[in-house]
């Protein structure tokens, strides 16, 4: 897997993925940025949410669940001092569909967290990661 980050100006950067997609990252004005894009640490959380959601949706579909929507709301706390690593991360899944099995949702989230989601397992080496869910 290869990616590239190129400095644009001020504190703006463009990240280019090996699969041909780009994303703008920028800092807040108080750090020389212009607030034109997501912060790099936010990107880590977005990657975690994408990885976990991919797993959960995939497993629920494979188990024949009539899933209509999946959102994950992620909250995180960072250390007070440098390096300001994540210390706590919480993922709240909101699953919508028809006759969704609570047992299957719980199992999909557990398998993602413990076995399949590389981002979760890697970030979990430093941060305490918790999960919960609701079914609508």
Automatic annotation (TrEMBL):
InterPro entries, per this entry? Answer: KH_dom-like_a/b, OsmC/Ohr_fam, OsmC/Ohrsf
Q: Name one Pfam family in it.
A: OsmC
Q: Would you say which domain of life the source belongs to?
A: Bacteria
PANTHER family to which the protein is assigned, alphabetical: PROTEIN YHFA
What name does the UniProt record give this protein? Putative redox protein
Q: Which organism is it from?
A: Cocleimonas flava
Q: Where is the organism placed in the taxonomic lineage, from the top?
A: Bacteria, Pseudomonadati, Pseudomonadota, Gammaproteobacteria, Thiotrichales
């Amino acid at each position: 897997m290869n990616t590239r980050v190129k400095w644009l100006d001020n504190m703006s950067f463009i990240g280019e993925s090996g699969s041909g997609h780009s994303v703008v990252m920028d800092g807040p004005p108080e750090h020389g940025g212009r607030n034109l894009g997501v912060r790099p640490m936010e990107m880590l959380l977005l990657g975690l949410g994408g990885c976990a959601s991919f797993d959960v949706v995939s497993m629920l579909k494979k188990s024949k669940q009539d899933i209509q929507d999946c959102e994950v709301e992620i909250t995180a706390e960072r250390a007070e001092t440098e390096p300001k690593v994540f210390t706590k991360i919480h993922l709240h899944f909101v699953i919508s569909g028809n006759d969704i099995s609570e047992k299957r949702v719980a199992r999909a989230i557990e398998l993602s967290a413990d076995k399949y989601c590389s981002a979760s397992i890697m970030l979990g080496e430093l941060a305490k990661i918790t999960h919960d869910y609701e079914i609508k």
